[in-house]
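Comment thread on ticket #2218

A.B. wrote:
> Attaching the input chain for the structure job we discussed in standup.
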Amino acid sequence: MSTTPSPAEAAGGPLAGIKILDLTSVVMGPFATQILASLGAAVVKVEAPEGDNMRHVGPMRNPGMGHIFLHANQGKRSVVLDLKQPDAREALLCLAEQSDVLISNVRPQALARLRLDYASVRERNARIIHVTCCGFGQDGPYADKPAYDDLIQGATGLPWLMQRYGAEAPCYAPVTLADRVTGLHAVYAVTAALYAREKSGVGQAVEVPMFEAMTQFVLGDHLAGLSFVPPRGEPGYARLLTSHRRPYQTLDGYLCVLIYNDKHWKSFFTAIGDLQRFTQDERFSTHTQRATHIDAVYSHVADIMRTRSTADWQALLDAADIPNMPMNSPQDLLDDPHLQATGFIRDTEHPTEGRLRTPGNPSRWSHTPCTEPAPAPQLGQHTAQVLREAGYSESAIQALLAQGMASRKATPSQGHKP
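C.D. wrote:
> Ran it. Output below, let me know if you need it in another format.
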């Protein structure tokens, strides 16, 4: 028997009562819908019979329950429908009739072939908010191109910036940056569209393209001289691109330090007994001068930082009220005293995958606090339950299952180690 609450039983969070039909997979869309679920929305994840690709990326304890899938799909229920089959598509439309939002990262052309585009779904639910997370804006020549995180990082200049920053060769950021940035755009698109519907009573289609989202993200820092017509210099924000902008090496390790404004710089040189540097060396005297000579400024600090231990620097910088933080690894984050005190990273018990460490929702709400999300579902775990709630009879559900148009077979569990 499932321990996952139905939408009617779910409570808590600012989006409590909102029903989301989730046709997303991999990282971008599931990251967005996991946030929406953590805010209280009832999310039904519709998967193909083979399941979301991220189910199959280890490490994992049991097949089909990979680590990224577990984190990106908490708080959701899994329904398996083969949407290429007419009866399964009809089942999805029945779910859409009762949903506030349909969100997908299926390419718009494929969605149209399935007749699940906005116009088709709106015929069944005029109030639906139909959100398409796609690779590229659909008015441009790239509209049909496939898009993945690596491709979008490359197309929006991240590898170029990494090489300018000092990498030996162009390289990608070692996080799914484009997926997650675009996923956050999708979250505010859904919530803003829900607010607009509250005022107008009308649903709408919303397009959230990765290329444009990441272009905005990158150019916000690095358009620089190209911001002006005619240009007043080259692209690139010098402070972010200097090769000296990195954790500072100390006598026994590394420390992240940002001496940023005039107060910080004066305090820093006072603390190390070199105030004359701030008052007489014009390269350090003003924000504009420091930005102009950023390589020399950061290089000088790097030389000074090598003269003391990490602990000594932390004590001195804290006393001088100069921003600094340790250089953490993922393992360090699990033991971080602040995160432990706030309960942000918590141990949870998954019914088939055992004990898991899971980051929480970073936002706090005084009036509508979020409840603990349900664990990520097994493949098809809730197919029959969700169809039943949509009004399907037991015989109709059994017919869909028998014809292979739907599935409720959960991923086989091989048990877990404590």
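A.B. wrote:
> Thanks. Noting for the ticket: The longest strand covers residues 42-47.
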